[in-house]
Every structure is written in C-alpha cells, then in structure tokens.
Design goal:
- The radius of gyration is 18 Å and the shape is globular.
- About 30% of the residues are buried.
- It is built from 8 helices and no strands.
- The chain has about 200 residues and is mostly helical.
- Helices cover about 70% and strands about 0% of the residues.
Length: about 200
C-alpha cells in the first residue's frame, strides 16, 4: 500500500473519529440542557456516558496525530478542550467541583501557544466558539463556588469581550445578520446541532 493511500486512510479514520467525538459531545451537552426530561441522577449518568465516549474518540485522534503530525487534526486543541469541559461539567453537576476545575484547567492549558499567545489569533469561528464555551464553563463553575464568585464573574466579562471581538473580526466579510447569527449561537459545536433542545421544542 502506498504512503499516499495510507495517509488518506488515516485521515478518513480521523475524520470519522472527529464526527463521533463531536456527536457524543453534542449529546452530552444536550442531555444536560434538557429540562425535567429525567431525574437529575439519570441525567448526569447519561450525559457522563456520552462525554466519556466523546473523550475516548478525542484521545484516539490525539494518539494518531502525536504519531504523525503531518496528518489532519480536525478536532484541534479547542475541540479536545471543549470535550474535556463537558466531562468537567458532568463532574460539577455531580458535586465534584475540585475534579471539574482540574479538568477545565487542563482544557485551558491547550488554548495558549508555546510563546504564550492565545490561539485565538489563528482560529476560525468553530475554534473561537469552542474556546468561549471552555472559558465560560470555567467561569460558571467559579461563580457557583463559595467565595470565588467575583473571580468567575470577572472571567466571564473578559471572555465575552475577547471572544466576541475575535468572532466579529473573523466574520467581518459577512453581513451584520450572519455575524450576529454566530454570536447568538454559542452552542453550535458542529453542524450536527444547530439549536438548543429548548429552542427546538419551542420551534416545533
């Protein structure tokens, strides 16, 4: 088998794993967003199962990429971090805030380049939205934590300003309506899920 064919097979495998990771991440988030659809315990258990599957796929992608950096990495650090943040959110919902913070800090570590600059400078809309959700998940954790509310609120204000400005810069060639569409839809993690569960039920 030629090296070109082998590389193509690897890329196809990674794209499949990426879709699987995104889908399960979306399902984890959607399960946590559902209101009164199941008991809290069942909700957390189901969301944790989806988040765990997403993380497994993401780790497999990272293993392939670490072995061969020349292959496509469609998930990127922001996508991997977003999945970690969902795992963290499941821990938070289960009353394990310390574990959740550790996972979120790991997710945020990947948002900075080796020279200390934020990866937003070279990001596209999907990556920016992933970053925003990681950071906002952390800010909400802090705001729910006794004596850390001010720290969380400050982070939220910084994130909204930084990320929204970056999104506007990226989307500047688009008209105002399209730009606002992205800004108003922070939960478009992939093209598989355009609306929150509540919005879907309201529209249908």
């Amino acid at each position: 088998q030629s090296s070109a064919a082998s590389s193509s097979n690897q890329n196809n495998l990674i794209m499949t794993q990426t879709l699987r990771a995104r889908f399960n991440a979306n399902m984890a988030w959607g399960t946590l967003e559902m209101k009164a659809a199941m008991t809290k315990k069942a909700q957390i258990r189901k969301a944790s199962d989806y988040a765990g599957k997403a993380l497994k796929s993401a780790e497999q992608i990272m293993e392939h990429y670490n072995r061969d950096p020349s292959i496509i990495d469609p998930l990127k650090p922001e996508g991997f971090g977003r999945i970690l943040s969902l795992v963290a959110l499941c821990y938070q919902k289960n009353g394990q805030a310390v574990t959740a913070e550790g996972l979120l800090q790991t997710a945020m570590d990947d948002l900075w380049t080796k020279d200390g600059s934020n990866t937003l400078t070279s990001a596209g809309p999907q990556q920016v939205i992933d970053q925003r959700e990681i950071l906002l998940t952390y800010s909400r954790l802090l705001q729910a934590w006794d004596k850390r509310e001010a720290e969380g609120k400050s982070l939220e204000e910084d994130v909204v300003q930084l990320v929204d400005n970056q999104l506007k810069a990226i989307l500047s060639p688009l008209d105002d309506t399209d730009t606002q569409h992205w800004l108003d839809k922070p939960h478009i993690f992939a093209s598989l899920w355009f609306w929150t569960p509540n919005e879907f039920m309201e529209k249908h």
